[in-house]
UniProtKB/TrEMBL annotation:
Key words of the record: Flavoprotein, FMN, Oxidoreductase
Pfam families (alphabetical): Pyridox_oxase_2
Cited SUPFAM superfamilies: FMN-binding split barrel (SSF50475)
The keyword Transit peptide is annotated on this UniProt entry: no
Domain spans labelled Pyridoxamine 5'-phosphate oxidase Alr4036 family FMN-binding: 11-96
The protein's name: Pyridoxamine-phosphate oxidase
Keyword Nucleotide-binding part of the UniProt annotation: no
Cofactor dependence: FMN
């Protein structure tokens, strides 16, 4: 495969990850650094991909610790692994808060059942803590739009491990790419 083909194939696989729940890249690991400088990683569902802009859309509860952490430090790495392929995507998060145009559009696309997952108590809050709030689920719904600036592709193959680095401009153009030792 050429570097151009790797670029195209990876983004195709990410698109499939967003559209198909059984696809390898449907669940991704989002890594960030919290306000104490500690690394944090968690699983999120890949909701949408724009292969032209090189963005990934993820959804979260704005009351979760990651929301505040990402507001302070928007640098992230998104990690995926499927079929012997690791994708390590570096980028920057844009936070789209509840009722913003981006969040509103994403909210409308969610099923009723998924919308209701935002109505419960705050993520990470104590299980014994009873909330009397009658939450409006949508008030808690935020969108993370991640602009990818580097893709680190690594394929494990018995005799021929391969790895490539691809860099993108802010507007999504592939600006450089090279093979590196795995
Ligand atoms: C399979 C799976 C999918 C998940 N998807 C999401 C998701 O799309 N968005 C989200 O905010 N949390 C999701 N979670 C929960 C997160 O992994 C995490 O526990 C939660 O968001 C709190 O993270 P934080 O404390 O870093 O804010 C998912 C968990 C699992 C096990």
């Amino acid at each position: 495969m050429s570097l151009r083909e790797i670029d195209s194939d990876c983004w195709q696989q990410l698109e499939t990850g967003a559209s198909e729940p059984d696809a390898g890249f449907h669940f991704l690991t989002l890594a960030s650094v919290d306000q104490q400088g500690k690394p944090q990683a968690r699983t999120l569902v890949l909701r949408a991909v724009d292969r032209v802009k090189r963005t990934l859309e993820l959804h979260t509860d704005m009351r979760s610790p990651k929301w505040q952490a990402l507001a302070v430090n928007p640098d992230v790495t998104v990690l995926g692994y499927s079929a012997k392929t690791q994708l390590r995507l570096q980028g920057t998060v844009e936070l789209h808060a509840a009722h913003s145009a981006v969040a509103e559009a994403a909210w409308q696309r969610l099923s009723r059942r998924t919308q209701q997952t935002y109505a419960g108590a705050a993520p990470g809050s104590d299980i014994d803590h009873q909330s009397n709030d009658v939450a409006n689920a949508e008030d808690n719904f935020g969108v993370l739009l991640i602009r990818i600036t580097q893709l680190d592709w690594c394929l494990l193959a018995r005799e021929d491990n391969q790895r490539a680095l691809l860099n993108y401009t802010d507007d999504g153009a592939l600006v450089s790419s090279k093979w590196v030792h795995p």
